[in-house]
Design brief:
The protein is an alpha/beta fold. 35% of the residues lie in helices and 17% in strands.
Length: 317
């Protein structure tokens, strides 16, 4: 496995880059890929992002300027913030057997290619920053999407994964002269009316257990249809549960297709989210992980709670 300097040299020796982002793209995968794309272009390299069909209004402005033309034939394919091949969007699966390199910060990262993996990083954006520092000066064009990456994956520097180095990277990015206020407003201080309706329903129907330390929140397809919510409205709904006082294990069940539930788990120190989701075929970080369960909702809940019970000795339903 390579470090940041070795990874920088790897990029310096190659060209014709296509950067892949993950399904249900967040600020880290898009911001990291866009920042890397800008850095490679500053070196005179040809670099693009594969268009992600699930982009939302918040991430679109950073990805679209980097989108690859339909006839682009890449020489080098790189995944950004992708822990497993199962997280490739449909249009990226054609590249699954020809990935040349991976950059990721998930402890559950699968060994599907040569890689630079740093599980202690709060965001893949921190790692991209380190790579680009070895390739030349950080410009505002690189810094803005990297700030999106670092700030969103650290919850605006409020999550437990935030370190002194996370703040140092953010400070260095800000010193390039970027305007971070629109980013903070978009990602952390703005909610659509439909989003507020989703949150209201989730809270009205939440289930508390384990002495109110565990909460289950659900977002069925029927709710999305009733509210007429978009993916933009439903972005990062998993952040709601941990805000409930006393909760240290919040599971958000989002129905992707009939009886197919994406479970997003957000936890405190008592519950290892990676271990819980690993029992259900998923993965992620110690305090933030996910998995997908194909089952009716009540069975999906039971599977999740059974997994929590295996990991947490003092869990009581």
């Amino acid at each position: 496995m390579l470090n940041a300097q070795q990874t920088a040299e790897w990029f310096r020796e190659r060209d014709g880059f296509l950067l892949l982002t993950h399904v249900r793209p967040d600020g880290d995968t898009i911001g990291s890929a866009a920042g890397l794309c800008a850095g490679l272009r500053a070196l005179g390299k040809t670099a693009y992002l594969l268009p992600n069909p699930e982009l939302t209004e918040s991430t679109e402005p950073y990805a679209v300027p980097c989108h690859a033309p339909e006839d682009f034939l890449p020489e080098t394919v790189v995944t950004v913030d992708i822990a497993a091949l199962s997280l490739l969007p449909e249009n990226a699966k054609a590249y699954a057997d020809r990935i040349d390199f991976a950059i990721d910060h998930h402890p559950s990262h699968e060994d599907f290619s040569p890689a630079f993996v740093r599980p202690e990083a709060a965001a893949t954006g921190e790692m991209i920053y380190d790579i680009l520092c070895h390739l030349g000066p950080i410009t505002p064009e690189m810094a803005l999407p990297l700030y999106v990456a670092v700030s969103t994956d650290s919850g605006c520097f409020a999550y437990g994964n935030t370190t002194a180095y996370t703040h140092a990277v953010a400070a260095a990015l800000i010193r390039t002269g970027i305007d971070i206020q629109p980013v903070n407003k978009t990602f952390f201080r703005t909610k659509s009316r439909k989003r507020l309706q989703l949150e209201a329903d989730m809270l009205n129907n939440m289930e508390l257990m384990d002495k109110d330390r565990v909460v289950l929140l659900t977002v069925p397809l029927s709710l999305m249809e009733r509210v007429q919510a978009t993916e933009y409205d439903a972005e990062d709904l998993s952040a709601l549960g941990p805000q409930i006082q006393g909760v240290d294990c919040a599971a958000t069940f989002r129905e992707l297709r009939p009886d197919v539930w994406k479970i997003s788990l957000r936890t405190g120190s008592r519950v290892n989210a990676t271990q819980v989701c690993g029992l259900l075929g998923g993965g992620g970080h110690m305090a933030a992980a996910g998995c997908t369960v194909k089952a009716p909702l009540e069975d999906a809940k039971r599977q999740l709670l059974d997994a929590v019970a295996q990991i947490v000795p003092d869990f009581h339903r």
